[in-house]
Design brief:
- Helices cover 44% and strands 21% of the residues.
- By secondary structure, it is α/β, with parallel strands linked by helices.
- It has a 5-stranded parallel sheet, sandwiched between helices.
- Helix 6 packs across helix 8.
- The protein starts with 6 loop residues before the first strand and ends with a strand.
- The protein binds calcium ion.
């Protein structure tokens, strides 16, 4: 992506917001496509080379969450939801359907650009790991995961993790930059998502943080999204 313009598709029915996004993105050097409803958005995704999609949830012809589900059946591209719906249940619905991130309107252009840069880093990391046959070692700041030996190191010192802590850390690491919902995590760790598992998840997360974070009240590596889930932050 370094040699090619990053193309962003904006699916938004509000003409003013669509124009604001398109103008700001063009000014930052991005290529921009726009669509004013879900049908045109999906058409554009299939026909054009789109790297990142910005998606409004309230569209005239279909709900944004059903668009996410449709896109995920043929593409893994980063989807950032930009919506006026601010309820946790809306965010969770979109993230569970496969969105990467969520921005609530009204938003600042600076924040939108920062979220896009996170998505770009995720694409770059994905390309790098696809190109690396072994894909055996994960690095992030002082944290290293050796997937082959199953060992985790912090500043070169090996950590003693329980099997659940290790799986939890690997899941977050493999999805670096993405917000993973409680349901997504418990589904992947325990294979189901009972309420009791969400409570267990908090306990395992606390013990994992004691091992990897210097200051557990200001975690560096794993960010909490209250009521939603967790995200591994690139250092
Ligand atoms: Ca709308």
């Amino acid at each position: 992506m370094a040699n090619r313009k990053c193309n962003i598709l904006v699916i938004e029915d509000d003409p003013q917001i669509r124009k604001l996004m398109a103008t700001s993105l063009t000014a930052e050097g991005y290529g921009v496509e726009t669509a004013y409803n879900g049908t045109h958005g999906l058409q554009s995704l299939r026909q054009n080379h789109v790297d990142i999609c910005l998606l409004d949830l309230g569209l005239p012809d279909m709900d944004g969450v059903s668009i996410i589900t449709k896109v995920r059946s043929f593409s893994n591209l980063p989807i950032i939801v930009v919506s006026a719906r601010s309820e946790d249940s809306d965010k969770i619905g979109a993230l569970d359907a496969g969105a990467d991130d969520y921005l609530t309107k009204p938003f600042s252009v600076e924040e939108l650009m920062a979220r896009i840069r996170v998505a770009q880093r995720r694409i770059a990391a994905q390309l790098q790991s696809d190109g690396n046959e072994e894909n055996a070692v994960f690095h992030n700041g002082d944290l290293t995961i050796d997937y082959v030996s199953g060992c985790v190191y912090l500043a070169g010192k090996e950590l003693q993790l329980t099997p659940i802590e290790y799986r939890l850390l690997c899941l977050l690491a493999r999805n670096e930059g993405r917000v993973l919902t409680h349901t997504y995590i418990t589904d992947h760790i325990w294979g189901n998502s009972l309420d009791s598992d969400v409570a267990s998840l908090r306990v395992f997360m606390a013990s994992l943080r004691k091992k990897i974070e210097k200051d557990t009240s200001h975690p560096r590596y794993i960010q909490t999204h209250v009521g939603i889930g967790y995200r591994m932050i690139k250092q």
